[in-house]
Amino acid sequence: MKNKGNILLQRYELGRLLGKGNLAKVYYAVDIKSGQSVAIKVIEKEKVLKAGLDEQIKRQISVMKLVRHPNIVMLYEVMATKSKIYIVLEYAKGGELFNKVARGRLKEDIARWIFQQLISAVDFCHSRGVYHRDLKPENLLLDENGNLKVSDFGLSAVPESKRQDGFLHTV
């Protein structure tokens, strides 16, 4: 990481860790030029190659370019160094739907509104041949206004993933 202090690639000021998975960590960041808040997914290339998941990462990026919708986290850009891949994404200030549900039952009108947004996003993806395959409250984020944002297309499948047995195959 070409990181002087908390500045990433002379473009983003990195902030707190938002979350982490097996291959990546997600950080809050601010675009130095525009002041826009973003989330940056930092992926270790070595881990990806060791796990043989380079095609999965490429598919995830290409899928996110394909699915631009108000209820899907937007991909802004992808950058890379010799050791890391940086996926710059829309920042969903409201966090995971999981945390909101864990605090207690949602009011019916709010639950219905969130569900309608989820159906809209899923329908949009399916109309473009994209199948998320990992929808769960942890992958459903909320923006500052409480609008739903579907995230994490790491297990998604596209028609090209279909094999002779008729099933979609990914990792």
Alpha-beta classification: alpha+beta
Give the biggest beta sheet: 7 strands, antiparallel
Query: What is the CATH class?
Result: Mainly Alpha
How many β-strand runs?
Answer: 10
Q: Which word captures the global form? A: globular
Mean pLDDT: 90
- How many discrete domains? 1
Write the CATH fold name: Transferase(Phosphotransferase), domain 1
Strand content: 25-35%
Fraction of helical residues: 25-40%
Brief digest:
Keywords: ATP-binding, Kinase, Nucleotide-binding, Serine/threonine-protein kinase, Transferase. The chain has helices at residues 45-51, 54-66, 97-102, 108-127; strands at 3-4, 7-8, 12-20, 24-31, 37-44, 75-80, 84-90, 95-96, 140-142, 148-150.
Structure notes:
The chain is α+β, with helices and mostly antiparallel strands. It has a single domain (3-161), classed as Transferase(Phosphotransferase) domain 1 (Transferase(Phosphotransferase), domain 1). The protein has four helices and ten strands, in the order βββββααβββααββ. The longest helix has 20 residues, at 108-127.
Structural key phrases:
171 residues, alpha+beta, Transferase(Phosphotransferase), domain 1, seven-stranded antiparallel beta sheet, three-stranded antiparallel beta sheet, 4 helices, 10 strands
Chain-wise SSE layout:
Layout: E1 3-4, E2 7-8, E3 12-20, E4 24-31, E5 37-44, H1 45-51, H2 54-66, E6 75-80, E7 84-90, E8 95-96, H3 97-102, H4 108-127, E9 140-142, E10 148-150
Antiparallel strand pairs: 1-2, 2-3, 3-4, 4-5, 5-7, 6-7, 8-9, 9-10
